[in-house]
Amino acid sequence: MYIIIVGGGRLGYYLTKALLNEGHEVVIVEKNPTICQNINDELGTVCIRGDGCETVTLDEIGTARADMLIAVTGDDEDNLVACQVAKHKFNVPRTIARVRNPQNETLFKALGIDVTVNSTNIILENIKEEVPTHPLTHLLTIRDKGLEIVEVKIPPDATTIGKPIKELTLPQGSRLALIIPKDLKPRVPTSDTILRDGDRVIAVTTPESEEALRAVLRGA
Amino acid sequence: MKVVIMGCGRLGAQLASLLDSNGHSVTILDTDAYSFRRLPHTFGGTALVGNGLNEEALKKAGIEEADAFVAVTQGDNRNVMASQIAKHIFNVPRVICRIYDPLRQELYSTLGVEAFSPTTIFAQILKEKLES
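Above: the input entities. Below: the structure tokens describing the complete assembly.
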């Protein structure tokens, strides 16, 4: 695949390295000449100095034949424009934008960016997961179905401990998929499965009912 | 008419003051309060410190009731993004945006953003002056 990366920061650099290792043809566009030089010294001539939002630059590097453009600069507005130019001017089939401000995600989607990766939210989730009291972790979002897979930890003070699952009224659209107990042997929950202290419950739910699901599982 | 202007540079400040003296209700946004020195002391509109890419700041500027939004910061991409927020999220009836890069201006015009490139316009004027 021919992949264009806009932005040669740490993210762009490691992404390029990974994609080159997988055997893809990769070009990075970076404004800063020093960064450009450093990348080329390390990875071979893969970095072009220029503005990835400019039609001229994108034309020069053959964007019209690119399979994918990934914009990972630190500025949301630059990532948006690079993807829009690639999509509408050069008909690139797949555009991926890094989004730093979580509130921009909806806008990017509405404006036709194929995939948005919200770096701020990913870091937040990872940190929150390490906070022992954190009740609910997002594991995966299934965007086109409006569903998400989450993990709910059952704390020692949960009033649901010792109760079978059939006694819980799960919110509509939520299903329990897996229970990972403290002894780490995962089991598929049935209606008679009893919740225990320290269980990690993996469930499918919707963004609207995740709070309700958390409340039902922990008895709050 | 209620107008929200993003960017209080020379152009933004002058446009704000012209619209204000014609009796329109004007709110001008800039990330740097120092930019507001460009507004004449007769300016009767509102000058707000805020980022036009931020929906909260735009709401504070009254974008929900605005008849028009104008993006004239120094950054083409910032102008384009703010204009698309105004158009697609707040449904502002008239959205106008400055894009220096003529090629990007062309592209965004086809994408439904009313965009002007001072580069193209000024080059045209200069050419006509020289040829007349």
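Note for the figure: Helices of chain A lie at 10-21, 33-43, 55-60, 76-90, 104-110, 119-130, 210-218.
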